[in-house]
Amino acid sequence: MPLPAQGRSKDDILEELRAKQAGDVRWQDGKTFGMVYDGGPSLHEVQEAVAVEFLHENALNTLAFPSLGAMQSEVVRITADLLHGGPDAAGFMTSGGTESILMAVKSARERGRAERGIEQPNLVVAESAHAAFHKGAHYFGLEMRKVPVRADWRADVDTMAAAIDDNTVLVVGSAPQYPQGVIDPIGELAAVAAEAGANFHVDACMGGFVLPFMEELGYELPPWDFRVEGVTSISADLHKLGYAPKGASVIVHRDKELRRYQTFVFDGWLGGFYASPGMQGTRPGLPIALAWATLQHLGREGYLRLTKMAIDAARRMVEGIRAIEGLTVLGEPEAHLVAIAADPARPEPLDVFAVGDALLARGWFHDRQTPPDSLHATVSAGNAPVIEDYLRDLAACVAEVAGARADDRATNYATLE
Most Cβ neighbours (<10 Å): which of 44, 168, 371, 412? Predict the structure, then answer.
């Protein structure tokens, strides 16, 4: 497609963009389990007004835009407080969970090199840990050591401990892990990492803005944040159940001494002193402002309300799925992530991907994952009003597909073009 010879009008551009959107998922209807998390019309109004104010600002240099520096610091401070980070905790905002995870890997490599002289570092993860850890190992030249999970889908402490050696710079736990939504044994894993002198990162990209409010609502959860001795860093995504627009995540370190390993600093350039806390140089100011505005607008009361809606919906979803003959939920999800699979006890085989295709034809979108084959749902407050509609359609789709098998077996969680 060549660049247009003449510029196009606003109306012409919007008409074509709306036509392109016709095939997109309808997250506004609550029928998309993931990708976009809807905090409601009042929040939309605030976010859209803020977007106009900060559309063009650049967070490359916050000396030029001190407003962005102030907002980033306040977002990090609020997040650290929710994670029980204490007064010494410090961090940065990033473009999303993947960048936060990359920075955790990079920080661990740098600390291992500086404090322990490690030149051939490795990291140890359960097979349930997010793929971004593998990406980080690939980018930053670490050996990846991946170990199987337990039968309940949680990280196996003994197996992970056996994989750790003198070159281990990072051990990972998830709260919760993405595929089945269970929380790893963070306390035990952190103790193993501390004994080895390694960093221990909690991937709470999914849970960072859910689990604190669940605890406040009275749900019992295993220890998972900075209250656990040995946790050196935590990632938490504001653009998931923090209900901020993309892309806004935070990585928090236990203290500034640990945080300094994240930052790249270079003073051998004719352009002057250069320092960057993440993968990006130029960073859009818009996600920072939107994250700050979201936190301020919702406040603690708003997050408690949205969290209760999401958890109630997720638990109703689990109950309803298990009541449908032929389906099961993998593991015992502790928060808002649900993995739907065919019940192995069903006399006639059921292809859950065929069920997913039938649901998509009715407007319901799930990510697909394997092994084992399952449909993944990240349940948020925006899904709550339509959960009963979903369960009715799900039961109808199971009956509809019977013994049919989906031709497409792909489980893409990717952008390849």
Answer: 168
Adjacent-strand bridge partners of 58: 284
Q: Are residues 112 and 250 located together in one domain of the fold?
A: yes
Give start and end residues of each alpha helix (H) in 36-156. Answer: 41-53, 66-82, 97-116, 131-140
* β-pair type (143-147, 168-174): unpaired
Residue 95 CA to residue 131 CA, distance in Å, equals 16
Judge whether 199 and 169 are in contact, CB under 8 Å: yes
The token duo for 152 is 């309940």
The whole-angstrom distance between residue 408's C-alpha and the CA centroid of its chain comes to 26
- Name the pTM for this structure: 0.95
Q: What's the total number of domains in the chain?
A: 2
Q: Domain of 382?
A: 299-401
Same-domain check for residues 326 and 269: no
Report pLDDT for 411. 78
For residues 227 and 84, the answer to whether their CB atoms sit within 8 Å is yes
Which strand (E) or helix (H) includes residue 234?
strand 233-237
The span from the CA of 400 to the CA of 63, in Å, is: 60
- Please state, in angstroms and rounded to a whole number, the distance separating the CA atoms of residues 163 and 127: 13
Beta bridge partners of 284: 58
Q: What is the CATH number of the domain that holds 161?
A: 3.40.640.10
Task: List Cβ<8 Å contacts ≥24 apart for 353-358.
Answer: 353/405, 353/406, 353/408, 353/409, 354/401, 354/404, 354/405, 354/406, 355/327, 355/394, 355/397, 355/398, 355/401, 356/406, 357/401, 357/406, 357/408, 358/397, 358/400, 358/401
Contact predicate 186/215, CB 8 Å: no
Q: What is the pLDDT of residue 413?
A: 63
Whether residues 111 and 242 fall in one domain: yes
Same domain, 126 and 272: yes
Do 91 and 229 fall within a single domain? yes
Calculate the CA dihedral of residues 83, 85, 87, 92 and round it to 10 degrees: -80
Per-10-residue mean pLDDT, the chain, length 417: 94 96 88 92 97 93 92 98 97 97 98 98 98 98 98 98 98 98 98 98 98 97 97 98 97 97 94 92 94 98 98 98 96 97 88 95 94 96 96 97 82 63
